[in-house]
Design brief:
Layout (H helix, E strand, L loop, with lengths): L16 E8 L2 E8 L10 H13 L3 E4 L15 H6 L4 E3 L10 H8 L5 H5 L1 H8 L4 E3 L2 H14 L34
């Protein structure tokens, strides 16, 4: 079935998105994962609903995006949900891409040759567009690092984060006196 051929009037079991909640190192998290084999992994209301549930209890959301895009049969309104979903992102280098239209369409319209990475890869989105905050070597590394991030977060959005020992901001250190020389000519 082509991406543009899936019927919008027919409900698909699961709607191409798996959602749930669980714990990572004892901290509650909510998750969603798009299934690109069902409706092209296109955006589902389930994603926004799981985000709403997480917000009610102050828990973080981890999303695994694997989608061919919006359900264009539903019109421009189908794009609105992406604003809610893509406020915070990390990407895996060389395997994650995000763009409105692919390199083939860009080539057809502008006669410009561009790769998926050059058009919407992790480097573009972590250094230029700001769509993603971090890039990792691969999916496994990204998941490991997200787990580490979760352990740094408080158990609830209303709680304060745990802090490890730190120096007093009012401390004095005589070593700093040696940074600037007494004589300005040196």
């Amino acid at each position: 079935m082509l991406l543009i051929d899936f019927p919008v009037d027919k409900k698909t079991p699961g709607d191409g998105v798996v959602v749930g909640h669980g714990t990572i190192n004892g901290k509650l998290v909510f998750l969603f994962s798009q299934d690109s084999t069902v409706n092209g992994g296109s955006l589902s209301e389930k994603i926004c609903k799981i985000m709403d549930k997480a917000m009610l209890v102050g828990a973080p959301v981890i999303g695994l995006n694997d989608s061919g895009g919006a359900r264009i049969q539903e019109g421009v309104a189908s794009l609105a949900g992406y604003a809610e979903v893509f406020q915070r992102n990390v990407m895996a280098s060389d395997t994650s891409f995000l763009f409105v239209t692919g390199p083939d369409v860009v080539k057809y319209v502008t006669n410009e040759d561009i790769t998926q990475e050059g058009l919407g890869g992790s480097k573009v989105h972590t250094t230029k567009s700001g769509v993603a905050h971090l890039a990792f070597e691969n999916d496994i590394d990204a998941l490991k690092r997200v787990r580490e991030l979760i352990t740094l977060l408080p158990s609830n959005a209303k709680d304060t984060a745990q802090r490890e020992g730190f120096d007093s901001p009012h401390r004095e250190d005589e070593v700093l006196d040696a940074i600037i020389p007494d004589q300005q000519t040196i």
